[in-house]
Design a protein that fits this description.
This protein has 656 residues and is mainly beta. The chain contains 6 helices and 31 strands.
Length: 656
Amino acid sequence: MKPRPLTSLLLGAIATLAVPQPALGQNAPAPKEAEEEEEEDVIIVQGTRLGRRLQDEPLRVEVIAGEEIEEKALMRPGNIAMLVNEIGGIRVQVTAPALGAANVRIQGLEGRYTQLLADNLPLYGGQASGLGLLQVPPTDLAQVEVIKGSVSALYGGSALGGVINLVSKRPGAAFEADILANATSRNGQDLTAYLAGPVSSRAGLSLTAGAHRQSGQDLDGDGWLDMAAFERVTARPRFQWTGDDGASLYLTLGAMSERRSGGTQAGRTVPDGTPFSEAQDTDRFDAGLVASRPVGDTMTMGLRASAMWQDHRHRFGPVIEDDRHASLFAEATLSKQSGATGWVMGAAFQSDGLRSRTFPAFDYTYDVPGLFVQVEQRVLSDLTLAASARVDFHDRFGTQASPRVSALWQPGRWTIRGSVARGYFAPTPFVDEIDAAGLSRLAPLGSIRAETASTASLDVGYAKGPWEANLTLFGADIDNATRIDPVAPDRVQLVNVAGTARLRGSEMLLRYRRNGFTVTGSYVFIDSAEPDPATPGQRQVPLTPRHSAGLVGMWEQHGKGRIGIEAYYTGRQLLDENPFRTRSRPYLNFGMLGEIVLGRFSLFANAENLLDVRQSRYDPLLLPQRAPSGRWTTDAWAPLEGFTVNAGVRFKFGEE
């Protein structure tokens, strides 16, 4: 099948009715409302390079900031999974139920296409591991920026499906501390701390640290852990400096160590009568730098660089796999802002590699130099056009061109955004099945081609007074997608799919805000189709619900507390290689959150999954026999943890 042109994707997409409140982060206020904003409410987007206000961005960016981040941090202090999972069009998909590994699917696209950044740096590598999402606490986040659709024009081959940029807090003029202790009804504990303060009038230091643990839980008594046990410690110091002339320097170091175990409990077995324990030990270290310096009155030179080293020791039953992932990144830019015109050009280099001590046949190093340019032009008072293009010279997959064109039109209170883009992804062995089963049954990679996609969206938005409404339609065509095919009862291979996978969908949102009370309703529809491996036709993409919806009510008052209730619906999903059913059951997930502020202290409690929806209530998680890939579990299509309560105390000092 031939890929559809970008114009057909754009015509197949409808509108995002999205001119949101900045702190809620869908799009931006209407121009007149934006002029009346208080300065502290203005959000500057960092992930699109030019540092524009959210409402001025031709590229649609959704921003979560402030109170909403604090709310999600109380629900799940140990990681950002819940924070990103409750964004419309985003789904956190468990890829390895035995260890709890998960990735982020944006608008139905595979999780490997999502680039996870920290302060615009790929500190978690070009392709974050399945556990990477679960090893990042939200303690120090100032805002989270989400760009949906191909962003290869900005970030290269790791951003085919979109980007999630985690923006950290910056030290203020006075010392501040934020310490949180949390415990769960499933015998989990978290202790996190954020400390920050100035070292001079121009420089500041911060430290984020955490200790987290979870005991293994066999909720259905079958001898297999439904929740993996783990112990994890993290630390991240940062340094921020701003010069008198506007120059700036940001430095960060990170360290994380985790021991995680799952599989069968002691003395228990899988259906073939043997024990099968799973485990992963992870040690990660990273460093990053972001620097800028003015050149003349309107130009700026910029430099970004990072390095990441991650050592893994996996156990899949009797097989132990040792490997090391390494990533190096550097980028130099020159940008200019002058009146109605802004542009940036630059050169980048990224290297990602794997060294497996157990299976060296899978070793790879991808060295990718690239050149890019981005131009934004306000052609009318209410019309801005933007274009960006990147050329990567991939040493394995050849020259790859990634263009993107966007437009922003703001007639009165309305906001209309349109965008079309192409991008690519450099395949690696680490698809979802390999996260779950390891490399032992995977045949050496053959002549795999780069995965490519065309994406498009058209957004229309309107907001007035306390009301905000959004409607978005999007589309994507993916060619050369990779998947695992069995070639023997105990052997699989990674192949490119012949044909085009297609995704079409819409996101809708309605929100009401007044006097600290917010009610938000959302709905996401995804129509997906991919070549069927068993027949000449097509099928729905597995683990992609056609319908999902949410309703959230929250009351909060600064200095007093908050109380909220939420409900989420997930519709039926096609299941692949599941002997118990071909389609999942739809389910509802209810939750409640409460916090009382007592000066510098606050007490909080959160109840998740009040209906105790759990996949193992409907079907076993264990397969009757081991899959060709080596995994012993079905795909996760519903929650694995069931009803859970967490509660704790939070202490803040130095914050006004």
